[in-house]
Design goal:
Helix content is 47%, strand content 11%. By secondary structure, the protein is an alpha+beta fold.
Length: 456
Amino acid sequence: MSTPIPKPPGVPLLGNIFDVDPANTWVSLQKLWEKYGEIFKISVLGQQIVFVGNVALCEELCDETRFRKFVGGPIVEIRDAVNASLFTAFADEPIWDVHHRILAPQLTPTTVADHFTEVRDCAAELTAKWRGMSSGTSVPAIRELNRLDMETTTLCFYGRKLNGLTGPEHPMIQAMDGSTSEAMKRPNRPKILNWLFHQSRFQKDCNTMRQYGAECLEHRKANPTDRKDMLYTMMNAKDPETGKSLDEKQIIDEIVTMPIGSSTAPCVIASALYYLLQNPACITKAREEIDSIVGDYEFSHVHLDSLPYCAGIVRETLRLSAAAPGFNIEPLPNTQGPVLLAGGKYQVPAKQTMIIVLHGVNRDPAVFEDPEAFKPERMVGEAFDRLPEGAKKWFGNGKRVCIGRNHAWMWNMVTLVTLLKDVNFEMADPGYQLRQDGWFNLRPVGFDVKVKPRVK
């Protein structure tokens, strides 16, 4: 006999709408996980959603012979900005396969490595800015790193230098924040309220993002180059199976999609700075590794594989921060219900939407000893290799895994190493305790750091 899936008490008609803060959905789900554990469900406006928060169940739901990515809720809403892109296409839309076959070759480890110098130089430009400030100047970590991510993504993928590390923040950054925030809230409101009170602002943000995409495309047309980068591929490559290519609307869809996806990366590094400042011995160990491997030489791609402790810092930050907070799963279309989970301990309907809450998965005490502690060493070498696959789902899973994960990994590593190599940090507020919010990502809120040049 199966065990009932726990559920918080709700109210008539509205269900559990008051258990989830629309302004901070993922933190609300973290609190529900802390109360109910490995699996729980809620009902909002008549729709039931099941949430999973341990490694074993996560690994089970990542079995693509039984389950697949579910495109619904906020992901459907953001189609107003990107249509059927790699991030938002429904499982039965063949356009996803066409776009993936065209673009995936630009995001292999080898092709991503070709952009190492651009990633490094953008990071060095940020640290040069910080080192040029008065010693002890406070900077908002996530806002500065958002600028860096936008600068790097636009340069590496589209060959366009925004010069956005100083001056006014690029409009794309605020538009992404506004549109993804609204996309998270819209499924929990009656459609008439969305249309009457929120559609205008949402559409304005979507238009701003598409304007960014159009400007990148027009910049390339006006400035021909022999760069064989992502934008070149979008404009010129054909799908090897169907012979189809991307039209201009689809090119803009994917230009806009890439920064939405990469916006998780600055959340990782901002969180890493917080965890490192809480654990200064980790900073010392990382800098010893960096100084011994990179030293006074020019930082190059060949160094990355020789910095295992820094890699452990990035992985442990991905675990604790859950910067990409979760992903949606559903049973395959031909599934006959009920669907049994955990060897029959739980059961769900055949068409049940399920969401993996990585905050819970990444703190599973059955896998991680002292799960709230920041221990990069558990993410290095054999200790990391021994972890079950369900404990390593920071970039999603299977066919619909994040296509930009290799770029994100390199950006995280290069940015972390550059910051630790060039700059000293301290908390602007020594009493700050981590607070998070976010929409399609989770970021530290109100976290400022004082920066000054590092003197070896």
